[in-house]
Task: structure prediction
Amino acid sequence: MRRLNPSLVAGGVIVGIIVLMALVSFIWTPYDATFVDPSIRLAKPSWEHWFGTDKFGRDVLSQIMVGSRTTLFVGVVAVGVAAVIGVPLGILAAMVRRWPSEFIMRANDLVLAFPALLLAIMFGAVFGASTLTAMIAIGIASVPSFARVIRSGALQVMRTEYVLAARAAGRQPWPIAVRHVLPNVTSLITVQASVSFAIAVLAEAALSFLGFGTPPPTPSWGRMLQESQEFLFSAPRLAIFPGVAIAIAVLGFNLLGDGLRDRFDPKLEDRR
Amino acid sequence: MKSPFNKLALPTRAVAFAAAAVLAVSACSAGSSTSSGSSPGGDQSLSIGLVAEPASLDFTTTDGAAIPQALLGNVYESLVKQDDSGKIVPSLAKSWTVSPDRKTYTFDLVDNAKFTNDKPFTASDAVFSINRVKSAWTISLKGAMDVVAGAKALSPTQLEVTLSKPSNDWLFRMTTRIGAMFSESGVAKLATDPIGTGPYKFSKWNRGDSIVLERNDGYWGTKPFFHQITLKYFKDPTALNNALLTGTINVIGTVQAPEALSQFTSNDKYQVIEGTTNGEVLLSFNNSRPIFKDIRTRQAIRMAIDHKALLDTCFAGRGKLIGSMVPPTDPWYEDLTSIAPYDLAKAKSMLQASGAAGKTLLLRLPTLPYATSCGQVVKSQLEQAGLKVRIDPQEFPAAWLNTVFKNADYDMSIIAHVEPRDLGAVFNAKYYTRYDDPTLQQYLAAADSGDEAAQVDNMKKAARRLSEQAAGDWLFLLPNLIVADKNIKGLPQNAITENFDLSKLAR
Result:
């Protein structure tokens, strides 16, 4: 019987809590996250407002809860964009002849060499700051990592006997890719998705912090951090709560990614 | 009495002289703390942090307050200017007389001013500059020169300007960008290479970062202290504060994060100046939109906003509630905040009555710190009254100027109007507020043509009319909040002109 993987469990629990918090925020938050109440601005944590209120008198806990939606939404779409483009590219690069494969991978290197945050800032400057542009930019920046990982996995699959048999039997490349290669790189996709999710969470927070992400008044952890700058000395809790939320979310997705990798690769686990 | 040098051996003396000479030379070249040349500041420099970078350096064709803030009075000069109390005083014109019918102005000009392209400033340049406002300027404020019937040079140092009708406003407008004097041979590249007669000359513009001005050593008047002044632009208000704390800049020209002001007030290294400005932060309505045709909707919006709470929330309570488009430094100022007091219940019922309740308004906000903050409060308060508000951030200046200011594609917006005495300019059918009110125009015309008492009386009526008609909502008046290194002198207490006067700054 397999040992319980602590990374997988910890990551799963953290991600589960975040997902649950986001789902609950659709039906319930302690207060309206965008409701401005100047009479209670900068209130300290209390029974009424567990995390206190910000400079607009908005409940910080409610904002953290609704902000988790933004975080997850950006993560899902960005990883989706990266996977939808990166996985076929990776499989294609593994299956085609030498020079088209080289072309695909060098193009990947080109995108990889471009700083992801800079790409996202450029998108924000050209198309306007919004959650959508942030998601697409982060997604595009994550394509090369998907393509690289999937290509290496697909190359291994392409050398297996059943693929060789399928090719010898005259099967076309497309059915081979869908029937044999894709199912065998699913574990790699899952692990890479989890790792990319953590990167996307961090990137969205950074972009919102810089003013190129989710515009106000939609709650976002990164923008909460940005708005807290004025109060770093007088009300540091305004930076601590979203900062901790971001750190926990990134940790959760990274642990989940590590755990999944160990789970799908028993040899790696045995070496520990 | 023996000199102390006599005690030194010859080689030691030589070394001492050499060291003194090296120190003297290096002190002249470093210039951080010594004087040299014809100005008390030697080659000392200063860096000032500001918020909104100009979209161009040509204020004849590009709207926006950032260009005159940087260039007017510093690179360009006008015939007359305002002093710190708002009084009109000589500049390039030494003196002037007004004919009994108040239609002819005769200016005696200084005879030693010259442009930074080495051309002398004469009455012909003044005629060229005045005529050019009508022929080549495209900004909305150019209308202030429409009243001029003609301008002619009586001699190289004497200028006569004839108005088509008496105007109280015209001479005042000549203190603003409208009155800037240009050289006929210096207007080819206004957007990138401004040429004026001012105490500073344009040096370079690092787009997205800074504008560098250098002392005009050929300046006709009192030469400024600093050899070089850099105007550094920051989009983020906290970054602006941090730049002063780290010594990147010496002055914060306009504090945009007032909540963090305590870090400067409690530090002996800095001085904090708090005064007043002309900057009315306006929640503008697009009065051409059907929803704003009903006065009840406009009034309800004004009554739905708790202005005191808004000021506390988005500008740390600094600034002043005004209730109309007149700052306290204007002679016709009245506190009109009582015209639309905060009354949520009444606002709700008025919105129900006008049929606006439940409708969605598009609030297009420039990406300026105060607008972003105030916009969130306005949205929340209007939604409590029964409206729906969708916030759409517009990059400032380019996107906001194009979408809101030029094309009036908006329902509501928030921006500070910092031009002096701008009531008539902001509220007319051609401006982005699209406010067409013949009664208001009658008051403004009577104020312009009447005597001083009539001007004050009619401007008061105009301000009251605007407030009663709820042509917009005046959220508050921006304070003049400056933070600077303790040893910087000459910073203005109040910012009541279009320009940031750099010529008075010293260390």
Residues 53-266 of chain A form a domain with the MetI-like fold fold (CATH 1.10.3720.10). The CA atoms of residues 132 and 198 of chain A lie 18 Å apart. Chain A has eleven helices and no strands. The mean pLDDT of chain A is 88.
